Each structure stands twice: as structure tokens, then as C-alpha cells.
Amino acid sequence: MGTYSVGIKIDETHPGPRVPNDFAGLSFERGTLNSGNAGVPGYLFDLSNKSLIALFGNLGLRSLRIGGGSVDTMAPASFEGIDNLYVFAAEAGTKVIFSLRLLNPAQKPIQDLKTIDAEIAAYIWAKYQNEAASFAIGNEPDWHSYHISDPAIYETVPPVPGSAYPSYLADWRSFAGAVRSMVPEAQFSGPETGAYSRLTYTPDSATGVSWTEKFAGDERDSGQVAQITQHLYVGGAPGATTPDQAISNMLSPEWVNGTAPGPQPSGTVYTPYPWLYASNLAHVAQAGLPYRLTESNDYLSGVHGASDVFASALWALDYLHWWAARGAAGINFHNKQWIYTDTIVPAAAGGYAVNPKGYGFKAFTLGSAGYVKRVTITNPDGINLTGYCIGEFGTDYVTIINKTYGAAAADAHVTIAPPGARLHAAAAMTLTSANPGDVTATDVTLGGATITGNQPWDGIWTPLAANPQTGVSLTVQAGTAAIVRIQTSFPAMV
């Protein structure tokens, strides 16, 4: 294993989008609002759940989305479950995207579902307005399977999923109207789409338009949509994918740079970030609407030994930064009880613990205060490394992710060129497994400290030499990441 030189230069003159403080979040199923769900004693979201509250704070999670497939299969949540959720949110310092049921099958209809949804929204707004980010209505309505039970949402050209969009939009608007009749100030997130392809609108259409894009165009001027929402599981259903194969995919340049869906082992297909952005979400951004990935993760259900080991922390850190650099309003990693992709899981000794993936969240929230700044990376040997910068007010945070490991492991000697303003000081915090370079490990530290639900995280910034002429240098070992805090001082105003 060698050490290779990498240079990073920050563009201080063209700041990009500001990263919202609620960018990083988690998503949970509607079932979590039921007492005893998934083996949880009492309610998962409850003021007495001190370890879960502590983990939200330690990880810097400021967004909590309640939804998932169970929102359209379960009865609307009880007021007791809702009370516990929002009291928890207030204590944890997070805001809630709350999903209301839309699907109403003809065989087992819920009488007055619109009124029930509106009453729930009114209850939340009256008691918990400060913790209410927005309301969503339904979950993944663009799949064909969604259109075969509810007479209000139907395909005019079966079995073309896109042909159900007009009836979906009419139904969604009727539910939104019912909510707004009771809560005129209500803001919505939607359409919570689950498909990634540009679904054909008619059978003979040469090119389709995604429901995400169509919904953004149709609701752009309504004044009732806070953000456009899309789901993405990058690796899709893993099938028989092995841990080694999944790790190779998660840390591959293809997921980060690919311009078209591509094949993976076991006959599965990945959806690269650039393709989804260009095909669906760039159009939303161009329309001037915020967009958020409210349900996302590496693989649908995950791969044991990949989604729950240190590789997932490096992947998550890179994924969060990539989307922040493209102006996303945020990402909620889905935390379905209890599967391999989860960020937070039950602890063996009681309470809750964080999986390695959570360290990627913390590393992101440490280095994401301010505006995105473009970086130029000089990497003559082409090692598998990414870098990002976010900063403001004399402080830049440069995040460097060395995704090399195994036979391709390579340390990176990184030099960050001095910023345009006078360099004052620098420090770094390292994200690593217990054995640097081992991406299969489950023991992880950030700044030399672990993250638990029973005490504050106490990671330490390590000072670096800061030379106004030559910049800041450090070695980022294979299979690790570093957050570099660069502070500049400015001449006094005359």
C-alpha cells in the first residue's frame, strides 16, 4: 500500500446553496406510532425513551419523517401515539414530516378518510405547530400495485402506471383541500414517489416524465407545497448480493458518477445519483422548488455485513454531501424496524444504539454549517477519493473520504490550498474503524470517541499546521474519512 498525493482547492468566490440545519434526518414507518410495535415496550417515540432522544441529539438529526408503506395499510394513528411523537420531537430538537393515509381500497374502505386525515392535521397543528415541518399524503403512489385497489386512483391505460397520474393528482388535491379547510396554513410534502424511471404517460410516448417532475410543475404555484419529495434506494433490492459485493458497490465511483442505471452482481441494478438528479430532481430545482429524499438508503432491506458495518458510514457521509452539493433540502434515511440498513437499533443492554452508518451522519453534521463551496481535486493517481467543502463566516469545513480498501488500499497525502482569505488555524477530526482501513468493522470512532445513547459525544478536534503560503496538509488513511476545519481571519474594516 502506497501513499499518493492529492490536492484540494476551495472556490471561495462562487458559493452554492446553503445547507439547511435539518438536512440530515431519519424516516420511520407509521407503525412506530402503535404501542408495542416491532417488539418495542410501549411507544418508540416517547419522552421516557432517553437513549433515543440522546442519539438524535448526538447525531445532529433535525428531521423525523413518519410514513413508509404502512401509512397506507394501517388505520390512521391514534392521538395518543401522535402526542408521544411530537413531545418526543420537541425534546429531541427535531421537526416532523407527518404522513397521512391516502389509499382507500374499495374492499375495505375507511369511511370519511379525508375528514379523519383533516382532523388529525388540525389536532397536530393546534398542539404542535412548532414541531410540524409539513404533512405528506400517501406513500409511493406511482407504482402499478398502488392503482389496483383504490377506485379513486386508476390507470386509464392499464397496465401503464403513468396513466394513473391525473386521477392521483385529483385525489391528492381533494385530500389536501380537506386538510386546508381545517388548517389553512398547512404545508405539504409530496408526492413521495418511489419509482425512479421516467414513467411513460401513454403507451406510445417516446419519453415519459416522472411523477416527481409532473407534480412539481402542477403544484409549483399553489402555495401549499413546502418541498417535493422522492425516494431512492441506490442499490435496489439486493437479492443474493454478498457483503463483499455490496461493499464494493457502496464505495464504488459508479454510484457517485454513473449517468445511467447499471448492473450489479446477482442480477440487481443500481440507480446512480447523477442519473436520478438529471432525470427527475434537476427539473424540480429549476422550477424553484426545494426537494428532499424523504426515504432513502443503500439497499432496500440492506445487506448484513455491508449496510451495518463501517463501509456504510463512509457511504452515508459521501451520499449526504453529494446531495447537499446539488441543493437538496435534506435526506431521511429509512429506519424500518428492524433491518440491516437501520441507523438506530435496539441495544443489547436495553435502550438504543447507533450502527456504524450513524457515524456518517455525525461526520456530516459536524462539517455542514454554511454554504456549499466547489472544490477542485487534483488526483493524478486516480485513487478512489471524494472531497467536499461547506463553510461561511471565516470557517470552512473540508470533508475528505478515502474509499480505498483491501487490495486497492491507498493512503492519501492531502494538501488543501490556502483559502483566499488569510489562513488562521486548522484542525481535523477522523472517522475510522477500530482498525483503520477495515471497512467491515463494527467498532467505529469519530474524533477518537464513540457515539452512545447514554452520554454526550465528546470527539476531539486535532490541531493541524496552517501555513498561509502552503495551506494545510494531512494524511487520510485508506478506508477512513477526515473533516478538516479551516479558520481564516479577515482584515479589519476601514
> Can you tell me the CATH superfamily of the largest domain?
Glycosidases
Mean pLDDT: 94
Distance linking N and C termini:
52 Å
Structural class: alpha/beta
CATH class of the largest domain: Alpha Beta
Cα-based radius of gyration, to the nearest Å: 23 Å
Assigned CATH architecture of the largest domain? Alpha-Beta Barrel
Query: How many strands, what sense, and barrel or not for the largest sheet?
Result: 8 strands, parallel, barrel
**Domain module tally:** 2
Name the poorly predicted regions.
200-207
Number of strands: 24
Shape: globular
- The portion of residues forming beta strands comes to 25-35%
DSSP summary: helix tally: 10
Fraction of residues in helices? 10-25%
Lateral arrangement of strands in the main beta sheet: 2-3-4-5-6-7-10-11
> If you consult CATH, what is the topology of the largest domain?
TIM Barrel
Summarize the structure.
With 494 residues, the protein is of the alpha/beta class. The chain is built from 10 helices and 24 strands. The strands form 5 sheets. Strands 2-3-4-5-6-7-10-11 form an 8-stranded parallel barrel, surrounded by 7 helices. Strands 14, 16, 17, 19, 20, 21 and 24 form a 7-stranded antiparallel sheet that branches. Strands 15-1-18-23-22 form a 5-stranded mixed sheet, with no helix packed on it.
